[in-house]
Specification:
heterodimer; A: 122 residues; mainly alpha; Arc Repressor Mutant, subunit A; 2 domains; two-stranded antiparallel sheet; 2 strands; 7% strand; B: 283 residues; alpha/beta; Alpha-Beta Plaits; four-stranded antiparallel β-sheet; globular
């Protein structure tokens, strides 16, 4: 897990995504606790307000929830929710970029399709 | 009003105007980055706040009370600076002991714990410390005072990469457990960028930026492409600076990016805080 300070996306978004990645990979299982705001901010050397903003984004999306006096826990069904959301974002994050780069390189649609097929075989 | 308020403050050194009618409000429980080039007036501002030097005009209020020659206000502020003000023959452990006389909330146990984490031998004398350890001593003292306002002027001077890493982690730990106002004045912007909430940029004795880090960062971006295309794109924009490499041109722009008005052939990328700072403070 790492934060890229030169990344286009704000740090709080990257934090939210990293936690989501942790949930997808099984590092944070459903109904288990995620690290606290302090742990996250100390670990990444980021302002606690930024870490909190990232976690709140996950709370608003129903991915994690607060257990009073205990901390933040991964919601049941979080993996399914994240997958659904990421699939929606897939077009914007990968396909538009891919198409843009392909145009720059003068790659045709057919060439791209064959590359994708090759990628899946690997 | 709570916090440190600097109102219409000026300071001259001979013919040099180090601060020009500066007004700024450092709010409670935030981490500030006070950024500026050498000689911009950062240390002068911090020295005026703490009454180490006297301004030519204006006033400084701490939690609504004037700070000038006011012990109870000044006790709320701890400032570490590059210069060493401790007696050279004093042992580190005695520095901690004496600091408590001036800052009653000084936490000696916490100071000892930090000394251990930084591997600072508290039996050593102040004069025996290297530049790095001299900074470490001052940092430990600053963070242990439990003063509501901690001013750190070049806190990581002489610290190696491991100790800088440890310093930022400890600042965040401390701030999370016991929120206070921390003003970090530094040249190492990249390292501090993640830690700070709010950025104050000072240039030629004037505050040129005073806003949240996120707001400031969202306003700066770079446009790169063929010079002719870039020139057309930036015609109506606030351009901070440009770099050219043959026919390739990069313009540094301040403003809100509208993705829809970016012509084909222009690559947009974000500026990090350091790059934005360089563009904002170039002559």
């Amino acid at each position: 897990m790492k934060i890229d300070f030169e990344d286009e996306r704000p740090i709080f978004l990257q934090i939210a995504e990293q936690i989501e990645d942790g949930i997808l990979s099984g590092a944070f299982q459903e109904e288990t606790q995620i690290p606290s705001t302090t742990e996250i901010s100390v670990n990444y050397k980021i302002n606690p307000a930024t870490a909190l903003k990232g976690i709140n984004l996950l709370v608003d999306g129903g991915i994690v929830y607060k257990k009073r006096g205990l901390g933040m826990f991964v919601s049941t069904g979080a993996v399914k929710m994240i997958r659904g959301k990421r699939k929606e974002e897939f077009f914007e994050n990968y396909i538009t970029k891919l198409a843009g780069e392909a145009k720059k390189l003068g790659l045709t649609q057919e060439e791209i399709v064959s590359m994708i097929e090759r990628g899946f075989k690997q | 009003m709570n916090g440190i308020e600097v109102r219409n403050t000026s300071k001259d050194f001979g013919n040099v105007q180090a601060l020009k009618d500066v007004s700024v409000h450092f709010e409670e429980n935030k981490i500030y980055g006070l950024l500026g080039r050498n000689g911009a007036g950062k240390s002068t501002l911090l020295n005026v706040i703490t009454g180490r030097i006297f301004a030519n005009g204006g006033e400084v209020l701490v939690d609504g009370e004037t700070a000038l020659e006011n012990d109870s206000s000044l006790q709320k502020i701890y400032m570490m600076s590059e210069k060493n003000y401790y007696p050279e023959n004093m042992k580190i452990r005695d520095v901690f002991k004496w600091t408590r006389e001036f800052y009653p909330d000084f936490d000696a146990a916490y100071a000892a714990k930090l000394a251990e984490r930084f591997e600072l031998n508290t039996d050593k004398k102040v004069k025996a410390l290297s530049t790095g350890y001299s900074s470490i001593l001052k940092l430990i003292t600053a963070l242990s005072t439990n003063a509501p306002y901690i001013l750190l002027d070049e806190p990581v001077l002489g610290l190696d990469a491991n100790h800088r890493d440890l310093f930022y982690k400890i600042v965040i730990e401390k701030f999370s457990e016991n929120p206070c106002t921390i003003i970090i004045s530094t040249h190492l912007i990249e390292e501090a960028a993640g830690v700070i909430d709010h950025v104050v940029i000072i240039k030629d004795g004037k505050i040129i930026r005073d806003e949240s880090r996120d707001d400031l960062m969202s306003k700066g971006y770079m446009a790169t492409g063929a010079a002719s295309v870039v020139d057309g794109y930036i015609a109506d924009k606030n351009v901070l600076g440009t770099d050219s490499l043959g026919g390739l041109k990069t313009s540094y722009i301040l403003g809100t990016l509208n993705r829809n008005d970016v012509p084909a052939g222009i690559e947009i990328s974000k500026m990090d805080l350091q790059r934005l700072f360089i563009q904002l403070t170039n002559a």
